[in-house]
Design brief:
494 residues; alpha/beta; FAD/NAD(P)-binding domain; Guanine Nucleotide Dissociation Inhibitor, domain 1; Guanine Nucleotide Dissociation Inhibitor, domain 2; seven-stranded mixed beta sheet; five-stranded parallel beta sheet; 15 helices; 19 strands; binds flavin-adenine dinucleotide
Length: 494
């Protein structure tokens, strides 16, 4: 018999799981508090410009391919994937910019020209990262680690000493042994920000991220990142998934260890056989459930790490900025201090590393003719509050810094459209714990088998999907999360 399933939240994880269950024959209803489906992967139009509001890097293409193939679709064809060449460009305070092609041969030459021996060292580093990535895809990502014995396979046992070293060593230590010059170290370390952590804390295991940069390649869907969400919703609609926008779930009703119904903001309740939360896990556990039904009550969150928040600028710029590629990064000289400000002292950094996407480099339709479309992300600490006056000041300050670095002093004067998303907006819009932009950081204690598993320990039919749970942050990881939860539901495990 078809089961009635409620999914709270329409982030990529929730949408992806809705499709898998609907395909199996379940009646699936998705409740989304905001006016748009997609969660952090949103889209908006402003003054003739079209912005993806969150993610802009399409990494791990095979994960998307595997997911959509289950519905007879092809991510590369349906999303019109373009491989970005070059992959990205990096600006520094005191060095000339470095362009990364996303081609290991060419990028090794670039590293070699910067530091003798660094080309060969990069190849070795990326090859090791590639091996770990393959191992992760095969054994550690599509699992909730319920059966640790199943992991004791010869391929893994053989690599245990290497894996152990990569788990216990901070990434920065590993990178220091590979290249000596700071700009090259920064290039190998920056992807940790994608995981809401710092290279000084993240396990060296995440060197696999460089395999994505240098080997797998950086892609972009021709009609923008939001087309991934559109493809998911199109798939769900054809399978009969029902979506409710502007509909916040305010309570999960329970009885004798079972989640029985969801209550909406207007007071109505609906009964379900299975309830899945794609919302922020802290919010789900501490706000939607009675105390007796909480697996993770408030006091358990004191030891957890909420990662990073951010100031996001959506900018329309008059004229061209040919010195920018599609993806651009700026790394400050005070690299370690910047990470310390964000993760330890929780101060808003004066001098901040940041990321800028120039979508118009690939898709001119995202801006009126003769204009550029820029998205700027400045990582900030979690737990800070930034009111609109302060946000305006910070935006002007970071923009000026970037204008100087890219040698375009008139950039601030050429802005014709500007909107800002603050840490507080993450709290208000997504109920994000401590205003986190990405979710719980991927420090070792919150990674792999130590990340929160996708099922309540108190309620047998309450599941979690998305960045809060295994395997973690990022679009491909959330697609994987959907499969992990689907398998868990199908196996009726508790
Ligand atoms: C600025 C930024 C840049 C990023 N860049 C990249 C990138 O380049 N590449 C990449 O792969 N990843 C990137 N990420 C990470 C990626 O976007 C996220 O990991 C992913 O989108 C999270 O999806 P999710 O399934 O966890 O759900 P979310 O996107 O977190 O959505 C959860 C949804 O649940 C809703 N909700 C919560 N509570 C309730 C409730 N009670 N009732 C109803 N609805 C509720 C929320 O409104 C929200 O829509 C980025 C994220 C951000 C913020």
């Amino acid at each position: 018999m078809a089961r009635r399933v409620a999914i709270i939240g329409s982030g990529i994880g929730g949408l992806a799981l809705a499709n898998l269950l609907a395909k199996h024959g379940d009646h699936v209803t998705v409740y989304e508090k905001n006016e748009q489906l997609g969660g952090r992967a949103g889209k908006k139009h402003e003054n003739g410009f079209t912005f993806d509001t969150g993610p802009s890097w399409y990494l791990m293409p095979e994960v998307f391919e595997r997911y959509f193939a289950q519905f007879g679709r092809s991510a590369s064809t349906d999303l019109d994937l373009i491989r970005l060449e070059p992959g990205y460009k990096v600006f520094f305070d005191t060095h000339t910019p470095i362009t990364i092609q996303g081609n290991l041969g060419k990028d090794s030459n670039t590293f070699e020209s910067f530091e003798p021996g660094a080309g060969k060292a990069l190849r070795h580093y990326v090859n090791e990262g590639q091996e770990v990535y393959r191992l992760a895809l095969e054994h550690f990502l599509y699992t909730d680690f319920h059966d640790l014995k199943a992991l004791l396979k010869p391929t893994i046992i053989k690599r245990l000493p290497t894996l152990g070293r990569l788990l216990m060593q901070p990434l920065h230590h590993r990178v220091k042994a590979v290249v000596a010059s700071k700009p090259l170290q920064q290039i190998l370390e920056y992807p940790m920000v994608f995981l809401g952590t710092s290279p000084f804390e993240a396990p060296a295991m995440y060197s696999l991220m460089s395999a994505l940069d240098f080997d797998e390649g950086v892609y972009y869907p021709k009609r923008g990142m939001y087309s991934i969400i559109e493809l998911l919703v199109d798939t769900g609609t054809s399978l009969g998934v029902t979506y409710h926008l502007d509909t916040a779930v305010t309570h999960i009703h329970t009885q004798a260890g079972v989640a029985t119904a969801v209550e909406l903001a207007d007071g109505t309740t609906s009964d379900y056989d299975i309830i899945i939360s794609n919302g922020d896990l802290h919010h789900t556990e501490t706000q939607l459930l009675d105390k007796s039904a909480q697996t993770y009550p408030e006091h358990t969150w004191q030891k957890r790490r909420s990662g990073i928040s951010g100031l996001l600028l959506y900018l329309g710029v008059k004229g061209e900025l040919p010195q920018l590629e599609h993806h651009n990064l700026y790394f400050v000289d005070q690299w370690k201090e910047n990470f310390q400000a964000i993760y330890e002292s929780k101060e808003i950094p004066e001098h901040a590393s940041l990321y800028v996407s120039r979508t118009t480099a690939t898709d001119p339709s995202t801006a009126p003719a003769g204009h550029e479309n820029l998205f700027m992300l400045v990582p900030l600490p979690t737990g800070v509050s930034v009111d609109s006056a302060k946000a305006g000041e910070l935006a002007a300050h970071y923009l000026q810094q970037f204008a100087r670095v890219i040698n375009q002093p008139d950039l601030p004067d050429r802005i014709v459209s500007r909107s800002i998303m603050t840490p507080d907006d993450f709290g208000d819009r997504f109920y994000a714990w401590e205003n986190t932009a990405l979710g719980m950081s991927h420090v070792l204690g919150q990674s792999a088998l130590w990340r929160i598993p996708p099922q309540s320990k108190k309620l047998s039919n309450l599941y979690y999907v998305g960045a809060s749970t295994m395997p973690g942050i990022g679009l491909p990881m959330c697609l994987i999360s959907a499969e992990v939860v689907y398998n868990r539901i199908m196996e009726h495990r508790s």
